[in-house]
Amino acid sequence: MRVDRFLSNLPRYNRQQVRLLLVEKRVRIDGKVVSDPHSDVLEFSRVEVDDEVLQSGKPARYFMLHKPPGCVSATRDPQHATVLDLLDEPHKDDLHIAGRLDFNTTGLMLITNDGTWSRRLTQPQTKLPKVYYVETEQDIDPSYALKFAEGIYFAFEDLTTQPAQLELLGPRSARLSIVEGRYHQVKRMFGFFNNKVLHLHRESIGELTLDHALKPGEYRALRTEEIHLF
Ligand code: URA
């Protein structure tokens, strides 16, 4: 939100006063004096007028987790363990998942308290490639690649999937790159050929690859350069 709007939303200042505060250089965002009314106030920004803190600016947090099988990608579940149960962090209620995985799917999962960041990452327009390692019940015919590249019609949503790239690794294993995250998308794509997915593992999201040092169930904070990938 623009800083002038942020300040004039507070009951204590009218627009005229906000203009003056900015001109008189009495407003600071994250410690820096701002006079431009368009300056951005984010969820995590610290906002001060003179020596008074108007928004304290809590730290933004970002984690990558190696999701194990048998846990739910939700913040709460009445029956099963959730991915958040695997995190030993304070204020877990503030955290949410950026891009879910099915109960038995393993691999890269991102967890954050930054809604702007996770929206950027998950919204379909971003078209971030998500790469999955897949093992199937039946042999994977090379013709699947052409069909996946053309797109597969999903009647329930009445849409055709975006072009996806399939790389065969063995008779029943492959690497698939998709740019969407439709409900059970990979399983339904293989389901088109009546071929059941037995094992599904997300290796990467965009340029971010699951850290090989993380065993299933382990997690770590993202590094600054990793956060800035999105
Ligand atoms: N596609 C699926 O079918 N399941 C997942 O967990 C992720 C992608």
Detailed description of the structure:
- This protein is α+β, with helices and mostly antiparallel strands and 230 residues long.
- It has helices at residues 3-8, 15-23, 115-122, 143-150, 185-191, 224-227, and strands at 27-29, 32-33, 47-49, 52-55, 62-67, 96-98, 106-112, 130-136, 153-154, 159-160, 165-170, 173-178, 197-205, 208-209, 219-221.
- Strands 5, 6, 7, 8, 11, 12, 13, 14 and 15 form a nine-stranded mixed β-sheet that branches. The protein has a four-stranded antiparallel β-sheet with strand order 2-1-3-4, with no helix packed on it. A two-stranded antiparallel sheet has the order 9-10.
- It is elongated and about 70 Å long.
- The mean pLDDT is 95.
- It binds uracil.
- The site of uracil (URA) has 8 residues, from helix 5.
Q: What fraction, in percent, of the residue positions are helical? A: 10-25%
Question: In angstroms, what is the radius of gyration?
Answer: 22 Å
> Which H/E pattern describes the elements?
HHEEEEEEEHEHEEEEHEEEH
Proportion of residues in β-strands? 25-35%
Low-confidence stretches: none
What integer is the average pLDDT?
95
Describe the global form. elongated
> What is the CATH class name of the largest domain?
Alpha Beta
| CATH architecture type of the largest domain | 2-Layer Sandwich
Total helical elements = 6
Highlighted features:
alpha+beta; 230 residues; Alpha-Beta Plaits; 18% helix; binds uracil; 9-stranded mixed beta sheet; 4-stranded antiparallel beta sheet
Layout of helices and strands:
Blueprint: H1 3-8, H2 15-23, E1 27-29, E2 32-33, E3 47-49, E4 52-55, E5 62-67, E6 96-98, E7 106-112, H3 115-122, E8 130-136, H4 143-150, E9 153-154, E10 159-160, E11 165-170, E12 173-178, H5 185-191, E13 197-205, E14 208-209, E15 219-221, H6 224-227
Parallel strand pairs: 7-13
Antiparallel strand pairs: 1-2, 1-3, 3-4, 5-7, 5-15, 6-7, 8-12, 8-13, 9-10, 11-12, 13-14
Uracil is lined by residues 101-102, 105, 184-187, 200.
